[in-house]
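Quick sanity check, Probable membrane transporter protein:
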Amino acid sequence: MTPLILALFAGAVAGVSLGALGAGGSILTVPALIYLLGFTPAAATTASLVVVIVTSATALVSHARTGAVRWRAGLLFAAAGLLPAAAAGALSARVPEAVLTTLFAALAAVAGLHMLRRRAPRRDGTVSGARAAGAGAGLGAVTGFLGVGGGFLAVPALVAVLAVPMGAAVGTSLLVVMANALVALAARAHTAVHLDLALLLPFLATAALGAWDGRRLAAKVSAVTLRRVFGGVLLAVAVAMGATAVL
């Protein structure tokens, strides 16, 4: 299979995951860029931010058309993560690639296990400003450092901390991760990282289309089924990346 075909296929899978679940797209993007398309870990995490921004914007439009976005809650949550995202994005360029790969494998495993859980996040009916700020800051730091959107963290946090209804949490999380990714990418603008646009642009195109289709897929397939499938994929990715880092 040629690199171009691999880029098209991997982009579509990442986009569908993001559009359907509001999560998982960028966690699939980074290993796909590294192991299928030959990007370095530093280049992959930077390119992933570009993919997160475009696919999140695409999926956000679809969710917004159905009224499934809580703009005020999303903007407040995102604001808390902007400075941590910028700081972590600048720090990431100074971290050894082996460390980035190991940390990313651990994050993929956590995300996979989270998706395999059937329980919905609990709401206590109260909204704590301190908890919201802490959760938003943590999400921003993860986005900036590892180049992931962090939707698997944002969705339950929006439900439990900001009392966003589950039906609107996915769409609102897209707003949050897009804002964090924009800031993190700006923080990396000064780093000398080469991005192979001949492979990144086809990946990006099919990811954007996949995000749009993922939204429609979510309306037809059980959310539990989708989460189990993508959770299993993420665990497999985590094991493969962890084994590679050790060897």
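Posting the structure with no commentary besides this: The mean pLDDT is 76.
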